[in-house]
Specification:
Helices cover about 35% and strands about 20% of the residues. The protein is built from three helices and four strands. The strands form two sheets. Strands 1-2 form a two-stranded parallel ribbon. It has a two-stranded parallel sheet with strand order 3-4. Helix 1 runs parallel beside helix 2. The protein is globular, with a radius of gyration of 14 Å.
């Protein structure tokens, strides 16, 4: 099962992949869950997407998680695609912790921002 929350590809790169109707093929049918969101998405909408992804994970019966923690969703990231606050990352960390699954966290997004480490701390303290 792969879940992704990202900028709508009709609004930003890569433009050719990441659409909601891309759900997987063959043995992977319905194991890809893309949630493209509009540029400027804030906490409430982003956290709703997190909740839908976590519900899919539970429904699937996952025994472990690998989380690509895209801190480029942060409100003060230079890319500024989304506007997720410190509180948003904290709530997300708590919700991931709530699954009680073995989890590997990989920080994979976030760019040269003096705020980057504080967003990571917000997530990690709650997790």
């Amino acid at each position: 099962m792969f879940c992704s929350i990202h900028v709508d590809p009709s609004e930003a790169a890569p433009y050719y992949a990441g659409y909601a109707n891309e759900t997987g093929d063959g043995p992977g049918k319905n194991l890809n869950f893309n949630q493209p969101l509009p540029m400027g998405t804030e906490d409430s909408v982003w956290l709703g997407a997190v909740d839908r992804a976590l519900a899919k994970v539970q429904q699937y019966g996952a025994e472990a998680l690998v989380v690509s923690l895209g801190l480029d969703a942060a409100e003060y990231d230079p890319v500024s695609a989304f506007k997720v606050t410190h509180d948003g990352f904290s709530v997300a960390g708590s919700r991931f912790r709530g699954l009680g699954l073995p989890t590997l966290l990989v920080q994979e997004g976030g760019y040269l921002s003096p705020q980057l480490s504080s967003y990571l701390r917000s997530f990690m303290h709650a997790f």
